[in-house]
Amino acid sequence: MSQLNYKHLHYFWAVAKAGSIARASEQLHLTPQTISGQLSLFEEVQGEKLFKKSGRNLELTEAGRLVLSYAEEIFSLGQELEQVLHHRPTERTVQLRVGVSDAVAKAVAYRLLEPALALPQTLRINCREGKLDYLLAELAMHKLDIVITDTPMPPTAKVRAYTHQLGECGVSFFATKALVQQYPADFPACLDAAPLLLPGEDSALRSKLMHWLSTQQLHPRIAGEFDDSALMSAFGQAGAGFFAAPSSIADMVTRQYDVALVGYTEQIREQFYAISVQRKLSHPAVLAISRAAQKSLFGAEGDHRQNAQK
Fold first, then answer.
1. Are residues 222 and 193 in contact, defined by beta-carbon separation less than 8 angstroms?
2. pTM value surpassing 0.70
3. Are residues 244 and 220 in contact, defined by beta-carbon separation less than 8 angstroms?
4. Helix or strand or coil: residue 200?
5. Which segments of the chain does DSSP mark as H helices, in order?
6. Which of 39, 86, 298, 299, CA to CA, is 20 to 30 A from 18?
7. Beta-bridge partners for 196
8. Which long-range contacts (CB under 8 A, 24 or more apart) does 279-283 make?
9. Which residues have C-beta within 8 Å of that of residue 123, sequence separation ≥ 6?
10. 173, 268 Cβ separation under 8 angstroms
């Protein structure tokens, strides 16, 4: 087996980041011919095509994406080593690469990740947001340590990974005080004919909300649909409609958006999961997240209930 040439790997990494040999040559202060020749040699030694042409730019092949995921980690460690040699910290930085499904409320994502910040080791969080399919692909290429989502891993996903349930909670409803006065009936009757903001179709909460409204014989007016939960809450803050969020963050929602807690239900349950390529969680930050979620965030849904209309 040939030994990996790290200079060639660095040229590959530079081209992958720049998107073209020309731009990489400017950054590296080398001629395009030099980089092109070294890149061809690297591909020949590895026995894989790492790039394919896309107009004037280069796109990574599947093998190229795999190599890039390792190159990112290798050169990140190299930068960390330089910092260690210059500053001599007592402990190595723990890196957590986490993907957050865009269906998960931002406040929930923060509350889930917050316990990792209390680790005694220095922590560096790299957080990405996107559709679950994209994040699972990143996980499969080892670009992420975990993916946080509101659904288990789809059975059709072509990724060898494992689902770990972090916890579950009920759902609370919120609105501005002016909107509450406009629809003064007790909860949940106040939702009937009232404007309601819904999460997007990718959210597991949406179908649960629609089913619950049907069983309660409530017919609100759908005033908006949002893939981004933070944007939905902002519209709710502006008085565009009632909106729902996990009960575990009810206090945070009322404070952050200056809205009233209208009521809550246990008949709708929101679940949250961590998906990893490991059957048993071992990353220290991920373990801290999992333990804290089960003990505190979802262990009790807070004292907000006593102030809610039942």
1. no
2. no
3. no
4. coil
5. 6-18, 21-28, 32-46, 62-87, 106-113, 132-140, 177-182, 204-215, 229-237, 250-257, 284-292
6. 86
7. 222, 242
8. 279/162, 281/164, 283/96, 283/145, 283/146
9. 93, 94, 95, 96, 116, 117, 285
10. no
Tracing tokens 């003064």 back to the chain, one arrives at: 184
Tell me which residue has tokens 């095509």: 49
Judged on CB neighbours under 10 Å (0-12, 13-18, 19+), 302 is middle
Inter-residue contact 249 to 171 (CB < 8 Å): no
What pairs with residue 163 in β-bridges? 275
| Backbone phi, psi, residue 240, to 5° | -75, -20
**Following CA atoms 238, 242, 246, 250 in sequence, which dihedral angle do they give, to the nearest 10 degrees?**
60
Task: Reply yes or no: is the peptide bond before residue 155 cis, omega within 30 of 0.
Answer: no
253 contacts 233 by C-beta, under 8 angstroms: yes
Q: What is the pLDDT of residue 182?
A: 97
Question: Tokens standing for 265?
Answer: 């239900």
Interval 280-307: pLDDT, tens: 777 778 888 888 777 766 755 444 444 4
Cα gap 113→148, rounded to integer Å: 10
pLDDT digits (tens, 9 = 90+) for 61-112: 888 888 888 888 788 777 767 766 666 555 566 788 899 998 888 888 888 8
Which structure tokens are listed for 185? 């009936």
Residue 100 burial class via C-beta count within 10 angstroms: exposed 0-12, middle 13-18, buried 19 and up = buried
Looking at residue 295, what DSSP letter applies? I
Q: What backbone torsions phi and psi does residue 164 show, to the nearest 5 degrees?
A: -120, 120
Amino acid at 91: E
> Which tokens belong to 74?
């290798």
Q: Which residue has the tokens 């092949």?
A: 61
| Max intra-chain CA distance, the chain | 75
